[in-house]
Amino acid sequence: MWRMIDLCAGVGGIRRGFELAGPFKNVLSCENDIYAAKTYEHLFGENPLADITTDKFKKQVSETDYDILLAGFPCQAFSSVGHKLGFEDVTRGTIFFHIAEILKKSQPTAFLLENVEGLITHKGGKTIKVILETLINELGYKIVGTHIDDKGNISFERNNLLRNARNFGLPQNRPRVYLLGVKKEFLENKSIHLEQYSLPKKRTRKNIFQDLHHLLDYGAEPKYYLSEGYLDTLEIHRKREETRGNGFGYIIVNDENIESPISNSILATGGSGKERNLIIDPQENIPGTILGTKQTPLNDKCIRTMTPDEWAKLQGFMGYGFIKNGLDAFSFPKKISNTQRYKQMGNSVTIPLIEEIANLLLKILAD
Asked: Catalytic residue at 75?
C-alpha cells in the first residue's frame, strides 16, 4: 500500500483518482479554503483545513510516514532577482516554494503536481524552467516527459506534459500540465529508465459520457435560465467583439449543428466559464417566466447555464468517481452555495485522467 499526502487538495479530485487506481492510502490532507474543506470532509470524512505555508503544518508532514506527494498548486510568478540560494531565493513566497521545501525535507518516492496549461508559457517560460530545475537538479527527481542532456540541460516537448480531459472519457476540453516525478535514487536502485515512460494519452476503457447529450440533465430548474435582459447583454457584447475581430462572447455548446458536443473548460471563477458553456434546454414553461431574482423575464430561446451537478459530471465526480455498489454516492454538502459549488468544480481536476496517471505510477513503481 502506497501512502500519499494531498496538498492544495481542493475537494479531493487528485486523491480520489489515486484511490480508484488501487493500492493508495491517503494519510494527510491540506486545504485552506473553508468551503472546499467542508466538501472534502463531506466526501472523505476528514477535515483537511490547514495552511501549507505554516511551520505547524510542515512539522505535521515531517512526522508523517508517506511515499507520494499530490498537489494541484496555483500558478504564481517567481522573483526576478537573486539566485544565490537557488529555488529558496527565487520561489520564496509562492506555494511552489512551500511544496518544494516539503519535498526537500521529507524526500517522498514520487509526486504528482497539476497546474493550468498556461504554466508552460507563464512569464515567457521562466516559471516552468525554474520549477523543473528545482525538482530535477536541486531535489533529485526525474519527471516523466522531460529530457536531460549530457550537460544537465533540461528540455521537454509541450505535448509531453499536457493532457486533456476530453481524451479520458469526459466531454470537456480541459488541457492541464501534469508533472509526475520519481526519486532518482529509487529509479537507479531498481534500474528503471523513466525516459521510456510517457503520460497516458487516453482512457483505456470506454467513455464515461459519450458527449454532452449523455451528460446534461435536460429539464433544469428555471433559476438556471438566463433572463431576457442578460441574454441581450451577452449578444450585444459578442457582436461588439466580433466587429473588433475578437472571438470573445457566449457559446452554446450543445447547438443542434454540433454532432458530438463537448464543453469548453470550466473555470474556478464561474463567470466566463459559465457563459462559454451555455445550454439550449427547451421547456414550454420557460419563455417569459418571471422569477423574483431576475429583473427581466426568462429568455424565449430557453438558454441556460449548466448546473453545478453537470459541472461535477464534467470533472468525473458525479457519475463516476464516487459510485459504490452501483449507486452514485457523490453530493455537495447541503449548506454549500451554488457559487461555491461552481468554484469547487472549476478549480478541481478530472478524476478519470488522474486515475490513469496513478495507474502509470503504479507500473513504474512495480518495475
From this structure: yes
Encode 147-171: b = buried (16+ Cβ within 10 Å), e = exposed: eeeeeeebebeeebbbbbbbebbbb
Of 193, 116, 115, 125, the C-alpha closest to 156 is 125
- Helix, strand, or coil here: 214? helix
Phi, psi of 112 (to 5 degrees): -130, 120
Measured distance CA(317)–CA(17) in Å, rounded? 10
Print pLDDT tens along the chain (367 aa).
999 999 999 999 999 999 999 999 999 999 999 999 999 999 999 999 999 999 999 999 999 999 999 999 887 766 554 444 555 666 667 899 999 999 999 999 999 999 999 889 888 888 899 899 999 999 999 999 999 988 888 999 999 999 999 999 999 999 999 999 999 999 999 999 999 999 999 998 899 999 999 999 999 999 999 999 999 999 998 888 888 877 677 899 999 999 999 999 998 876 667 899 999 999 999 999 999 888 899 999 999 999 999 999 999 999 999 999 999 999 999 999 999 999 999 999 999 999 999 999 999 998 7
**Any idea where the domains of the chain sit in the sequence?**
2-208+349-366, 218-306
The CATH classification number of 2-208+349-366 equals: 3.40.50.150
- C-alpha radius of gyration, the chain, whole number: 22
Give pTM, 2 decimals: 0.94
For residue 26, what is its C-alpha cell? 491517503
Q: Are 215 and 313 in contact (CB under 8 A)?
A: yes
Residue with cell 475581430: 245
Q: Let me know: does 217 contact 309? Beta carbons within 8 Å.
A: yes
In the set 8, 30, 75, 302, the catalytic residue is 75
